[in-house]
Batch of 2 targets.
Target 1
Amino acid sequence: MDRKSCTGVVTGAIHIPTVSFGPKELNTTALAEFGEYIHSVFPTVFKTSFVQHEVIGEYSHLFTVQGSDPSLQPYMLLAHSDVVPAPDEGWEVPPFSGLERDGFIHGRGTLDNKNSVMAILQALELLLLRNYIPRRSFFIALGHDEEISGHNGAQKISALLQARGVQLAFIVDEGNFILDGFIPNLKKPFAIIAVTEKGAIDLMLQVNMTPGHSSAPPKETSIGILAAAVSRLEQTPMPNMFGSGLLKMTLQELAHEFPFPTNIILSNLWLFGPLVSRLMERNYITNALVTTTTALTMFNAGVKVNVIPPVAQAIINFRVDPAQTVQEVLELVKNIVADSRVQFHVLSAIDPPPVSPSDHQALGYQLLRQTIRSVFPEVNIVAPGICIGNTDSRHYTNLTTGIYRFNPLYLNPQSFRSIHGINEKISVRAYETQVKFIFEFIQNADTDQEPVPHLHEL
Ligand SMILES: CCCCCCCC/C=C\CCCCCCCC(=O)N[C@@H](CC(C)C)C(=O)O
Ligand SMILES: [Zn+2]
Ligand SMILES: [Zn+2]
């Protein structure tokens, strides 16, 4: 495959608006078209005898790549084809154009997560064209509704594999990146492989009051009571969980890359932990790493300008720190609100998944580390960490204890804001490197213990 057609397949994928708008609101026409599209651009994947393809939940795709050595436990690569909405306003180029300009492919899904869908299939296509037969079997699961919780895609694939008795050595999904420019004073990029992710709660708060004429308002209305309750929640941060372990481990691994005196501070968190945790609270991204976050995302009340509203509702999205549980957070929330007129309705809730191993025996973690070292030799630090977002991988905890969330891409604060924001784009070079990473990773995974010699050239 030449360079142009390599990136051309991404342009085509971005062009198909596979938008998840809201619960049960998907662009099914686009999702069906996307299925036909991957079929047409990766013909070898679809016609190879040892690659089985199944459509699950109507639009998700499960590929089973049969390896030659049944004694090796299979693994799975995840990605998702749906994207969040992208109104045209504010974009440098239309978000579904997939335009390639100045070395970048532009558009919704270029970082989250059509890049991974296309790179995984492209790497497999290239390997198959070179007559490669894997030793270790693997699955590729491409969800179609990750952006609305994965109930019809990932969850169904997970149930199907469980019913078939499949147990996996590990899973690799989207999540963290090679981070560049997130920490002042740290000029060098570092790779964070997320070994867990935050839990989540969507909580609806509701206040019912007697409606009436606005010319003689009561002292308190449903809107006023609810507004005060959500404001208390916003103004009362959840406890700082810095001391609980994982983040400490990440910072200790980063310590020696910092200049004096930060290196000393981070190497002695037993002493400076409280100081570091307070500093982390000051920035909204690092704050998300040390605590359960509270985001007021929806507020609804009122039917007419001169009617006292009978009901007011607000939805709050909490991201639960891995050291807490949904139950603990709900208790705290009730104590903060402390108003019996406010009703609580949990719309959805999921505890943080268990922390996956990152020691020397952890095959998935070590394979990622090895491949990062080979494809990104300039990256000195690879450390385990937390993913602040949620991924489809949380639906697969029944199949493995080793779940790793890592995109082999550089991410800086500006590109971080483009994910779910505006002007999402990927450099052609970054996409090609992602393909190379997966191409090498699949071969590295053929090891039973030691890395095996393999092709480096695409
Ligand atoms: C000391 C280290 C500093 C680290 C800085 C951290 C920078 C953050 C880097 C990457 C985070 C990106 C998270 C991307 C994954 C999110 C996928 C997503 O959007 N999922 C949805 C799922 C939901 C169920 C709809 C979500 O809202 O989380
Ligand atoms: Zn995503
Ligand atoms: Zn997303």
Target 2
Amino acid sequence: MDQSKEQRILNTVSYNAVKGDPESVMKCIDKYCSQYEWAMNVGDEKGLILDKIVEEADPSVVLELGTYCGYSAIRIARLLKPKARLLTIEFNPEFASIAKEIIDIAGLSDKVTILEGHSEDIIPQLKKKYEVETLDFVFLDHWKERYAPDTVLLEECGLLRKGSILLADNVVFPGAPEFLKYVRNNQRFECTSYPSHLEYMQVEDAMEKAVYLG
Ligand SMILES: O=c1[nH]cnc2c(O)cc(-c3ccc(F)cc3)cc12
Ligand SMILES: [Mg+2]
């Protein structure tokens, strides 16, 4: 059985990246996915916007929805202070196992926990099972149809506090219109749009930041 694209991404990281060096893992994935096979990593253009927002927030507890190969988990975790941690939810078992290996190569396994399953099933478990009080930062990068319902679920589960930051990828392409409508018309959120481009392409995309006002 021939390998999957995600397995080929792991191969190139494992062969070319410097072990324990997150930046070299990111560069390796971006190089491979821009030159050989497109893949849905947040990429280096939107990644720079993500970096700035994470650095400004300096979060202690981060939730990511949609791990894929672990690129954005590495991008975020490399910026976190020593005790801070990132929980990332992935429903595809193959992606979860590949991400685990790539995050390990980056040397960030002690900061990142991959939770395998559907976001709607895991979010209600975060407080009791994963000892989360509230979330400082949430990166939404999973299935666009789940952005809005998962945002409602996070609030219902008491996981958002005054100042919690939601950052959503792909709000222009493939698009998350219901999510934009929900947060932009909701007084409990302060929204900012960050225009950019689809990873490795010249297609317009954007990220949306929604700060929870409590
Ligand atoms: O499904 C996605 N999850 C998370 N991020 C994505 C992402 O950044 C891009 C895309 C995507 C982009 C172009 C296309 F033609 C088809 C799919 C999907 C996801
Ligand atoms: Mg994305």
